[in-house]
Amino acid sequence: MPVPGQQHRRGQPPASWPTLAAYQAGDVRRTASREVVFGSNWCTRQDQPPWRAAWIQTTGEFVVVHLAGDREGDHGPVRLLGTFADLAKVETALRGWPGVAGWAGSLAWLEHRIAETVTRS
């Protein structure tokens, strides 16, 4: 099980999954958990499908999902950016995110903010 506030290391669960269905199948708690979405329009480039960012309450995982599939379960890949014991830490790290999401390169901003917070934890 992931250590809250840390990125995954060798011997821990994988940091990415090919699809949302594969991610959810890896831990049954993910499907029934409360999910706090931090936008569905994180971009690398404007001409590519966006990513959705979310914190999964029961696992503490903060993930991004590439919204590239035809159906919800087909979206992917899913990338685990870090784990957090509580929502407040994520909200603090991402303060101001609504003004950033949607811009080209915004996914890199999100990844940096989460990595910076995980490193300080």
Summarize the SSE layout with pairings.
Elements: E1 16-17, H1 20-25, H2 29-32, E2 35-37, E3 51-56, E4 61-66, E5 78-83, H3 87-93, H4 106-120
Antiparallel strand pairs: 1-5, 2-3, 3-4, 4-5
Q: What can you tell me about this protein's structure?
A:
- This protein has one domain (16-120).
- The chain is built from 4 helices and 5 strands, in the order βααββββαα.
- It has helices spanning 20-25, 29-32, 87-93, 106-120; strands at residues 16-17, 35-37, 51-56, 61-66, 78-83.
- The chain has a 5-stranded antiparallel β-sheet with strand order 1-5-4-3-2.
- The protein has 121 residues and is an alpha+beta fold.
- The protein is 26% helix and 19% strand.
- A hairpin with a 4-residue loop joins strand 3 (51-56) and strand 4.
What is the gist of this entry?
This protein has helices spanning 20-25, 29-32, 87-93, 106-120; strands spanning 16-17, 35-37, 51-56, 61-66, 78-83. With 121 residues, it is of the alpha+beta class.
Please describe the structure with a list of short key phrases separated by commas or semicolons.
single chain, 121 residues, alpha+beta, 5 strands, 19% strand, disordered N terminus
